[in-house]
Amino acid sequence: MALTFDDLVHRARALPRDGRRAILGIAGSPGAGKSTLAECLVRELNGTGEPWVAHVPMDGFHLADAELERLGLRERKGAPETFDAAGYAALLRRLRDDDPAETVYAPGFERGLEQPLAGAIPVPPPARLIVTEGNYLLLESGAWARARLLLDEVWFCALPERERLRRLIARHEEFGKSHAEAVAWVHRSDQRNAELVATTRDRADLLVPEAALPGADG
After folding, report:
1. What pLDDT digit, counting tens, does each position of 38-79 carry?
2. Domains of the chain
3. In degrees rounded to 5, what are phi and psi of residue 33?
4. Beta strand 22-27 with 129-133: parallel, antiparallel or unpaired?
5. Which of 29, 106, 123, 139 could be disulfide-bonded to 194 (CB atoms 3.0-4.6 Å)?
């Protein structure tokens, strides 16, 4: 029987056990639908009651453009080395420690500015499920490996390549690039990252097919 979005909601709902906070990771290549899936899961699980699920994207740990320029990495923005992976792992540890008296503030990412924003996302003590998403949750190197150990499950968005590229180009256009600039960036930078991410899919706890992603036809 084909996996559905409702199946994903049910599986995510079951992750926190015995009152313990759980952290769900959603991985996938750029443009695969990670953010959309995370946002839809959080909205569906929270419903109209008291929010108990929080969304904490990995994108808040992008290094700022000024630091990327200093490191000579501006043209590689989005690659694993352009994130503060150790900082991300440290945040997951704080969330895992689950201090009942502490609101944890996570950084966000402003797509219009293409820059991280410190302290943009509050995670209050009642949050029992944290949904985090990003390209590199299944990497086995450096601080990324430490981050993986702090996640209860990691799902991988397995969108067909043609559709993933179409969505990714459209996203770059939405945030200001011309079509030619978007295509060039996708094939120069994003595609190298996508190929790396694709090698990690077999480490996921669950592969999420296109049909189960929000907005899929059928």
Report:
1. 999 999 999 978 899 999 999 999 999 999 999 999 888 889
2. 5-212 (3.40.50.300)
3. 100, 20
4. parallel
5. 29
